Structures are given as structure tokens and as C-alpha cells.
């Protein structure tokens, strides 16, 4: 059933456009959504790794500064201001890592949900493609 002026469907074919069915656009949207969620998970994992690397580097720098000054007690009046600042930054990064891990868990759940919705749509699409080709496997499923 054509919607629009008579011959509109033929005109799109002549111009080289392909008219998408609603199922095709829904499937494409779900594929994009699942890919976007996977990118978000990967991005969060990379940020967590980077922050953990920074924390270990700050820990190393604090230990080196304490060794250099021979003062390891942060409450001591002559404790290095560099070590204090690095310890503060390390604490902030630790809090950020904890926050990112919570966001990562939520992003993983979202990705799993999007992937399961996509798999619900794709098998139906595959069966339809086989039916159009006249494949007997589509009749059995």
C-alpha cells in the first residue's frame, strides 16, 4: 500500500533512494543504540584504568617525597606540601573511581538490555529474509 502521491514509490527508486520499512529503521536504531552503549562501557572502563594508573603514580610520588624529606606523618608540621596536595588528589581520584564504577555497572546493564532487545528483533528479520528467498529452513522455525 503506497502512501503519498501516485508513483511516489517508483520515483524514489528512480532517484536511487531506498524506502525503508518501519522494521528496518527500528532494527537500525536498536543496532545503533547497542553500539552506543558498548562505546560508553568501553569509555568508562578506559577512564577507570587511567584514573587507577594516576592513583598508583601519585602513591609512588608521595612515597618518594616522604623518603626525600624523611617525614612520613601527614600531621607533622613540616610535612611536604607537595605530598599533602598529591594525597588530596589521590583521594579525589579514588572517589571518582568509585563513582565511575557505579556508572559502569549501570552502563553494562543498559548495554545488556539493549543487546537483548536487539537479539529479539534480529532473528525475526533473519527469518523474513529466508522466507523471501524461499528457503525451507524458514518454514521449520
Kindly list the characteristics that best describe this protein.
mainly alpha; 4 helices; 141 residues; single chain
List the quaternary state of the chains: single chain
Contiguous uncertain segments of 5+ residues: none
Number of DSSP helical runs: 4
Main structural class: mainly alpha
What radius of gyration results from the CA coordinates?
28 Å
Intertermini distance: 28 Å
Give the overall shape, derived from the CA principal axes. rod-shaped
Number of strand segments? 0
Give the helix proportion (percent range). Answer: over 70%
Counting structural domains, the number is 1
Major sheet characteristics: none
**Can you write the helix and strand succession as a string?**
HHHH
Mean pLDDT: 84
Task: Give a short synopsis of this structure.
By secondary structure, the chain is mainly α.
Amino acid at each position: 500500500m503506497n502512501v503519498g502521491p501516485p508513483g511516489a514509490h517508483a520515483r524514489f527508486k528512480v532517484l536511487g533512494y531506498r524506502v525503508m520499512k518501519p522494521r528496518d529503521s527500528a532494527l537500525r536504531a536498536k543496532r545503533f543504540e547497542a553500539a552506543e552503549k558498548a562505546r560508553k562501557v568501553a569509555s568508562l572502563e578506559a577512564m577507570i584504568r587511567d584514573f587507577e594508573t594516576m592513583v598508583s603514580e601519585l602513591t609512588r610520588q608521595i612515597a618518594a617525597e616522604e623518603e626525600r624529606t624523611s617525614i612520613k606523618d601527614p600531621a607533622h608540621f613540616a610535612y611536604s606540601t607537595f605530598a599533602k596536595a598529591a594525597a588530596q588528589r589521590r583521594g579525589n581520584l579514588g572517589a571518582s573511581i568509585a563513582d565511575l564504577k557505579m556508572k559502569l555497572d549501570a552502563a553494562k546493564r543498559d548495554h545488556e538490555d539493549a543487546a537483548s532487545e536487539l537479539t529479539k528483533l534480529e532473528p525475526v528479520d533473519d527469518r523474513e529474509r529466508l522466507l523471501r528467498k524461499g528457503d525451507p529452513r524458514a518454514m521449520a522455525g
